[in-house]
């Protein structure tokens, strides 16, 4: 969560517009969920109704049974992939912004 807070805390506001969802039951008892969204981002200072930038987003995850006590209905995310074109933010954010980093920004030496 710390990474998510650091990444998204820099924005004034976010809104996700849902487009589609596919659910695939796998032979090993897991389920693959694929969804498409638009991530609308308001950068600091933008208090209008129009987002600063809107970025297509794809989310793919595998959900499966777990013994973790905090799991909802005995299910947990086993794998998650999130794809969105961060380059669309390049003209709004400095090149050292968290969203552009390719290393772990929480555990820098």
Distance between the termini: 20 Å
| pLDDT averaged over residues | 88
The unreliable regions are none
Order of strands, main sheet, comes to 1-2-3-4
Strand and helix order = HEEEE
Radius of gyration, CA atoms, in whole angstroms: 17 Å
**Percent of residues in beta strands:** 35-45%
| Net shape | globular
Structural class of the helices, strands and pairings?
mainly beta
- Helical content, roughly? under 10%
Query: How many beta-strand elements?
Result: 4
Biggest beta sheet attributes:
4 strands, antiparallel
Number of helical elements: 1
Identify the notable features of this structure and list them briefly.
109 residues, single chain, 1 helix
3D architecture notes:
With 109 residues, this protein is mainly beta. The protein has one helix and four strands. Strands 1-2-3-4 form a four-stranded antiparallel sheet, with no helix packed on it. Strand 1 (13-25) and strand 2 form a beta hairpin. 4% of the residues are buried. The mean pLDDT is 88.
What topology does this entry show?
Blueprint: H1 2-8, E1 13-25, E2 31-42, E3 53-65, E4 75-84
Antiparallel strand pairs: 1-2, 2-3, 3-4
Describe this structure in a few short sentences.
With about 110 residues, the protein is mostly beta strands. About 5% of the residues lie in helices and about 45% in strands. The protein is built from one helix and four strands, in the order αββββ.
């Amino acid at each position: 969560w710390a990474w998510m807070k650091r990444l998204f805390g820099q924005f004034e506001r976010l809104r996700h517009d849902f487009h589609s969802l596919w659910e695939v039951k796998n032979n090993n008892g897991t389920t693959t969920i694929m969804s498409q969204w638009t991530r609308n981002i308001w950068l600091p200072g933008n208090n209008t109704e129009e987002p600063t930038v809107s970025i297509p987003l794809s989310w793919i995850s595998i959900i499966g049974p777990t013994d973790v006590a905090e799991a909802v209905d005995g299910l947990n995310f086993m794998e998650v992939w999130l794809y969105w074109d961060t380059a669309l933010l390049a003209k709004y954010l400095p090149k050292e912004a968290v969203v552009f980093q390719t290393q772990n920004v929480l555990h820098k030496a």
